[in-house]
Each structure stands twice: as C-alpha cells, then as structure tokens.
Amino acid sequence: MTTDTSTSPAPTQRERRPGRGAKGGRRIGSHAFLVLMALYFVVPLWFLVVGSTKTNSGLFVGSGGALWFNDDFSLVDNIRGLFEHQGGIYWIWLRNSFIYALAGGIGATVLAILAGYGLAKYHFKGRTAYFTVLLGSVMVPLTALTIPTFVLLSDIGLINTMWAVILPSLLSPIGVYLVRVYSQEAIPSEMLDAGRVDGAGEVRLFVQVALPLLRPAIVTVLLLTTVFSWNNFFLPLAVLRDTDLLPVTVGLNQWQALSNAGAGGEQVWNLIVTGAFVSIIPLIAAFLGLQKYWQGGLSLGSIK
C-alpha cells in the first residue's frame, strides 16, 4: 500500500506536462497568426500615414523607403495642396461623402431596426420564408447588383443624382439580421407581454421598452452601414457623371486616372495618398468613440 501511494503522483505530473506543452504551442501559433493578421491590416494604414508626409517625388525615390518617413516632412504642404487643388473640389467630395454616409447609414439603420424587431418579436405567416430570403441576399455580392440597379434607376430618371447613391444604400440585409438576432436575446417576450397586459400599445412598447434595450445593436448597425456608404465606390462610379456629385472614393480615383495618364503633366500622387488618409480619419474617430457599444453588438451577433 505504501509503495502505491508514493508513486501515484508521478504519472499524473508526467501526463499533465505534455498537455501543457501542447496547449502552450497552440497559444504561440494562434498568437503568431494574430500578429500576422494585425500586420496585414495595419501596414496599409501605416503606409497612408507615412505617404501623406512625402512629396510627389519622395513617394518613389525618398530616403526613407516605402514604409518610413523621408528627411523632408511635407504633411502640411500636402494638406494645403489637397484642399486647393482644382479649386478646392476635395471639400465638395468630402461633403458629398458625409451626405451619402449619413443619409444611407441612418436610413438603413432605421429600416433594419423596424424589420429586425418585427421578424424577432411578431409571428406572422411567411416569417421564416422572409428571413430565409434575407439570409440568401446577404450572400449576393453587391457588385452583381450594380447593373440591375443602374437600369432601374435609369428607368425612373434618377441617374446622376444624389438619390441614385442614397436609395440603394438604405437596404442592409446584414443589418436586419443583426437586429433580429439581438432582439431575440436582449428583449424578453415576457416583458412585452407584461406591457400589453398593462395596456401599453405596440408603438409605446417599441419606443419605451425595445429601443433602449437595442442601443448596442443600433450603434453597431449604424457604424457598419455608415462605413459601407462612406466606402461605396462601384455604385457611384456607375450612376454619377457630374464631378460635383462624386464622393471622395470616386473623386480620388479620377485623380489617379489623370496621374496614370500624365494628362497635362499632372502628377498628384501625394495629394491622392493624403486625400485617402484624411478620408479615413472620421471613420477611425467614430469607431474609437463608440467601440463600447458596437463591440457588444457584434459579440452577441457572433454567438448566435
């Protein structure tokens, strides 16, 4: 008996050590993978930061290389040139991007809240079929819808107007899906039933009970739809002709085409890089300022 008791802990320790080693190896591998993914996303942003401080020639033959600063620091000159080039048209493109992003983001969020809440909390005929179609539409690439959207907008005479960009942006299937999932988890049906017993109408229940509980989902969907509208490129490129209606994305693409062609000796690569850097500052500020809301909304949606 004594011999068995004294030797029993040793095999247990030997069994645990390989497990800890394998677990530690998996952690190192996962951490290395996360570092690589972080670099994959951070390096382009870092290139924008560094490139916006360089002159037009310094972007290609500078002393610091592609990912480091040159000896001359031209950020202020680039920003001044950006807002003065072609009569300050970058201001107009920036204003247009704000209009498209806010109108599309707010409108898509309102529609997503109404549709997602209805699908989650009301039972009606065809609800499952509607939601199945909604999930299927998430899988359709938006570029495949650009030509049909162009034909539809052309038939109703909205080509080359702001409505040609805003109206298609109001539909967000992924936003409806997130609100529906969040509504199921965050709004107890018993709470709504108790409100109905007390005499509250459906509108009052939605405004006073559901909306406060949906705050993380609202912020998440608002950020996602606003960023999508801000970065929208292919649709404005197809439906807009007037330079004064272009968003920043398409406007910078025009400058890039002119620089590639060398039309009129115009090479404005430094302004293009600086314009791209300036255009992402509002999005970064919005994500950092509202991160405590959208992180909660995304995590609940991922669990489901």
From TrEMBL:
Where is this protein localized, as stated in its record? Cell membrane
Keyword Ribonucleoprotein in annotation = no
**What is any Pfam family matched here?**
BPD_transp_1
Q: Residue ranges of region Disordered? A: 1-24
Name all ABC transmembrane type-1 domain ranges: 94-290
TM segment ranges: 28-49, 98-117, 129-151, 163-182, 203-230, 268-290
Membrane-related topology note? Multi-pass membrane protein
- Identify the GO cellular component terms for this protein: plasma membrane
CDD domains, sorted: TM_PBP2
Q: Which GO terms describe its biological process?
A: transmembrane transport
Q: Which InterPro entries does the entry link to?
A: MetI-like, MetI-like_sf
Give residue spans, biased composition: Polar residues: 1-11
Give the superkingdom in one word.
Bacteria
> Sorted alphabetically, which keywords does the UniProt record give?
Cell membrane, Membrane, Transmembrane, Transmembrane helix, Transport
Q: Give the family per the record.
A: Belongs to the binding-protein-dependent transport system permease family.
UniProt protein name = Carbohydrate ABC transporter membrane protein 2 (CUT1 family)
Q: Which source organism does the UniProt entry give?
A: Isoptericola jiangsuensis
